[in-house]
Structures are given as structure tokens and as C-alpha cells.
Amino acid sequence: MPPNAPSRPGGQPTTRPQTALTAIRALVFVLSLLPFLHLLRGALTDGLGANPLEYLTQQTGTWTFNFLLLTLTITPLRQMSGVHWLIRLRRMLGLFCFFYAVLHFAAWVWFEHFFLLEAMARDILKRPFITVGFVAFALLVPLAATSSQYAQRRLGGRRWQTLHRSIYLIGILACVHYFWLVKITAIVYPLTYAILLAVLLGWRARDRIARYHGPPHQRMMGK
Amino acid sequence: MPPPLAFPRITPSEITPPAVFAARRAFIRSTGALILAGGLGSAGTVAFATPTPRERLAVSRRSPLSTSEATTPYRDVTRYNNFYEFGPDKDSPAKHAHRLRTRPWSLRIEGEVRRPQTISIEDLLAWAPLEERIYRLRCVEGWSMVIPWIGFPLAELIRRADITGNAKYVEFHSLADPEQMPHVRTPLLDWPYVEGLRLDEAMHPLTLLAVGLYGEVLPNQNGAPVRLVVPWKYGFKSAKSIVRVRFVERQPKTAWVKAAPEEYGFYSNVNPAVDHPRWSQAQERRIGEFRKRPTLPFNGYAEQVAQLYAGMDLRRNF
After folding, report:
1. Contact B163, B112 (CB under 8 A)
2. Domain extents for chain B?
């Protein structure tokens, strides 16, 4: 969504008082940091179970995926509820997705390979689930890098939006990554994420079809 | 191989791990509370909060087959388990295995035997002197532990089973009771959990029928009351909570081979040179250690077991 998008033609003003929004954003920021603080405390107090390195790797991966889904939930939620200021939370959620992805990637670099470039390269080339995870992470980098309003303006709304639609692909890659790494006995976890992602992407597909066929005032620019 | 026992040696298992000590204290405290509460006529809620009393096992000897490596703390051995009958996560067994009733328990010995028999766990425990075996355990997932098991060689059971000449393999069936094991209702594996060994593997002196660890009766989450321990194979070969031992002529169809034959083989010997299709087996993370360590062929037991596989292509028979 471009930063200067006009409000819906004929709709009511959708802005909230700036102070309330600032408070909400501060709250979301703190909430988003809680998983990280929980892991940090666990790491410092030996509270991460019998295999703390595995736990850290898994949890950072899970939270990356959680924030990816939350980011993708904003647009449907906003359109269905008409609560348009929700869009003002999206960038932060997306950046938290990247934040946890960086931690997840760092856990792999450090705990799995102890910074050995050769071992990492071999892993990426040889293990399909690592290949897919690495590609997903690499695709997140330009999105994080162009998240600022300055970058949005530089790119222009349409190009920026096209670039950021790669999050759909990243979500699918994340699903494949997850399915590929678990045993059959844990299949319920990736399956749950896949269903949630399918709902979020399905909603967009349906919305897109509806916009092409529906009355013009519904043709909103949405992601 | 540890040196001969020239002087009294204190094995790690003789030293009470702090967690065990703490748990015993907690047990004593809660038992006290239980007695008090019982006096007041409201024991019910306290009783459920009481941990299962932990029974010591008399061990008559230590084994020269034990490793002298540092053992994994009791707490980690009993809270980080794969026992899918109780759930998909590492902590599921510790959370849910209290539902398992290990007494009464009987073991059915059948198949290619002259006289099939059903024996109680009490009788089984009297079949051979219990000994301590400190073994490395390597999971197919890439982590490892060192565990002081209590048990006796499976060969003792086979000797008493009176098998026929047709017995070429042994099947082990775990309990599959949905009342006690909630995840037996989900069809992720073909329950009951079945594992198997070739007869010579089963007869090997390293192959243990375990009934305890750390000098105590086996905790439920570790496969109580009786489980298999085959230290040179990936952990999933060591079936837990065994109710049936069947001698057969053909290679058994085991649970993981049925679930994913391209990922898990019948032999599943620990082998750093043969990767799992989705990850490397060259290294392992010993629980409690930060850096990974190299995985050894046959989990470090090559000297004892490699001859069992002489002439076999271990890449094909993974």
C-alpha cells in the first residue's frame, strides 16, 4: 500500500488520533519483542530445555513464520473490518518477521555450522529444505531494505508493491521449508501453517477476481 | 574401554545428579503434605501433584562394555524424548507418560518358538542378574546422549525362548493402548510401533533389554517397564514399552520403514558416511555440549559389531 494512498472514495475518514495510534504501535512493538525476550531470558538462565540450541533454532523459525502470517493478515482484516489504521502496523510486523528471520539464520550459521562457509555452502546446495529456507531468507532482505517511506518514494508505489508481493512466494517457500524438515509425526505443525497461508492467499485471489468483476468503487489498491 | 577395576571406581551413575536430589526432596515434601492432607481428609488433589515414587534397582555388576564418557544428566535423559505414542514433541513423553500403567505388565514371547509363553514383568526381572551398561545413544535426528542403563542382555531372553531353526529375525512390539497413549489415535505411524533385529544382532552381547536407568526403575517416558537398547543403531531401533517379542523367518516390516522407506532402513546402523536424505549424519550434538562432535561408525562400537555386517553394502543396507 503506498503511503499516500487516498482514503476510500466516499468513505468516512479512517484516521485515528495520532497519539492513540502511537500508543498502539508502541504496544505492538513491545508485544512483538516478547518472544525474543523470552528466548534471551531462557538462554541466560539455562531455561531452554535439554537441547537449547535446537530450541532457539526452532523458536526463531516459528516466530518468523508467525510474523509473516500476521503481516499478511493486515490487509484482509483491514478490508473486512474497515479499520484502516491497521495498515500503519504492517511495516513493523513485516520488519519483525525479518528480525526473527535474521535470528533464525544466525542460529543456523552459528549453531549448525560455527561460521564455516564451506559447510554452509554444502548445506545450501545439498539439502533441499535448507536451499528453500535460504532462498526465502534472501528474498526477505530486499523487502526489509525497501521498507522505509523513503525507499517507497524512490521506487514509486507500483514498483514497490510489485516487489513486495514476493512475500507470497516467500510464504510458500517457508511452508515447503517447514514440511521438508519435519518428521511425519510432526506433520500437523507445517500443515497448520500451510492452511493459514492458503486462507490468506486465497482471500487475496478471491479479492482480486472480485475487483476485476465488481463495481469500480471496490477496486481498491490492496495487497 | 575403561581400565580393569583395580580399585573401587565411582561411576557417574553412583553420584546422585542434583536434579534427582531435588526431585527426591520435592517428593519427600509432597509426601509429607499428602500425609498431612490425608489427615485432614482432602488428599485427592495433592495425590495427583505427587511425582511417581522412584524405585531403586539392585545392580549386581558393572559391565566392561560401559563407556567412561560423562553421562547425560538425569533431567535431560528424562525430559527430551521421542516416544510418539505420547505426542510429537520432545517434551510430550515427559508430560503425558504418567498415564502409562506399567504394573501389571506381561510380555508375550511367540512366533518361531517351541512353546509360546506370556511372562510377567516380575518374572522377567528374575531371568538374569541386572547390570549397569553406560552406552552412547545416537538419535537419527543428529543428537546424542550417554545413558547409564540397567538391564540384562537380550540374549538371555532368547536363550529361554527356545526358538526353532526358522527364527531368523526378532520383532518387538510396543504397547499401543489409546487409553494410555493418546497419540495412538492419530494414524501418523502404523501402530503398534514395531521394530526388529536380525537374530545375530539380537544375540549380540551389546544388545540390552533395559528396565532402568541411573540406578532406578525406568521412567515411563523412557519406555517403561522394559525396552530395547541397541547402542550401535539409531535410537528409534530401540523399541520402548515392549509387550510382544516375536521370532520370525522374514525381515520384519518396521514402523519407520513403513512410514518412510527412503529415509529409514531396516538396519539403521549409525553411519557418518551415509546421510539421511534430508540431513547429514556426519556430526552430532551431544546433549549438554555446545559444539557438534563427529559421529563415529556404529556409534563407536565398530570393534564389537562391524563383523556382523562383513561383506554387506552398508550404503544400500542403510
Report:
1. yes
2. 13-51, 57-309
